[in-house]
Amino acid sequence: MAFRPSQRKEKALSSLIEAEDIDVTSLMNMMVILIPFLISMAVFTEVASINFSLPPATTEGEGPGSEPLPPEEADKLDISIAITSTGFTLAGTGQILPTIQKLSDGKYDLEALNRALRAIKMHYPNQEDIVLIIEQAIFYEDIVNVMDICRDAQFPNIGLSGGIQ
What we know:
Blueprint: H1 5-11, H2 13-16, H3 25-44, H4 71-74, E1 79-83, E2 87-92, E3 95-96, E4 100-101, H5 110-123, E5 129-134, H6 140-152, E6 157-161
Parallel strand pairs: 1-5, 5-6
Antiparallel strand pairs: 1-2, 2-3, 2-4
């Protein structure tokens, strides 16, 4: 049996419950503190990046010896630094310099590498390219340190090559 429309209004469940206001004061207080904090942290966050270049892709049949060098590139040296677990090996256009061994405490001798690169830069002042050949077990921090030494020695174009096999 259904109630008449005049009685339905009085019997409805919603009419028996009082309407209460939701207290949002604590939520507003949290937002007032949280929003300026997040904005201030976004201002001080910086992302650093290291510029490097990969070797150019070649198709089959192309190679470094397929064309004669222009005169301005004839006095350039193809320098590569092999970073191994024993130290650094510098090589350039058929020449291999003596290996720079690690120090007795197990760290790389970055000062000796810096001196060697500066000596190369004195003989080849137009040289700006250098390639890092990195073993698989070398730590990222050591790679970044070597890249910083290369830039400090006026070699801004740093390329990365696959590991030594």
